[in-house]
User: Fold this.
Amino acid sequence: MNIDGLDYNTQREKLIIPEYGREIQNMVDYAMSLTDKNERQHCAESIIAIMSHMFPQNRETENPEQKLWDHLALMSNFKLDIDWPFDISQAEHMLAKPDPMPYPMNKIPVRHYGKMVFELFEKLKNMEPGPERDELTRLTANQMKRNLAQWSHSSSNEERVVSDLAKFTDGKIQIDIDTFKFEKSHTKENDRPKKKR
Assistant:
């Protein structure tokens, strides 16, 4: 369907700084088309005033006017021939994108416990027996139980936690299920979704 006068943003030229919108970009383009330098200067100052009113919270930032003039320089691709009240030579750095952060690619045997629980397993393996290790064991076991329940594993029971804790600490942490006190689960058995038959 093709309607005269109707176009989409995807068909238009990409905005350099989209926060200001297409109308401000059109004003900048108009200012660049003016032949009289005084008129261009007056037009640029008017555009800066409008940009300032669009984002009043920016007035509390450091050098708010410098930032606006830098934005104007960027939107004009540094082609606007006016007397710039600020040095705009550093404006290009505003559009520079940071280097992408590397995604951690740590392999863990089972994802439902998560990386931090496996870090706890490593710590428990190297700890001397005593009250501190007992407390960390209690915290880790209860976190494992919560993680199993959160991932809705059908076998989110205490036997599984005891077995996995021993397995992932290379047998160094053995807890007796009959004497170990797990925290009470906040989800009732009736609240859990029933399996379809």
Q: What stands out?
A: The chain is about 45% helix and 0% strand. Residues 131-150 form the longest helix (20 residues). The chain has a mean pLDDT of 84. The radius of gyration is 31 Å.
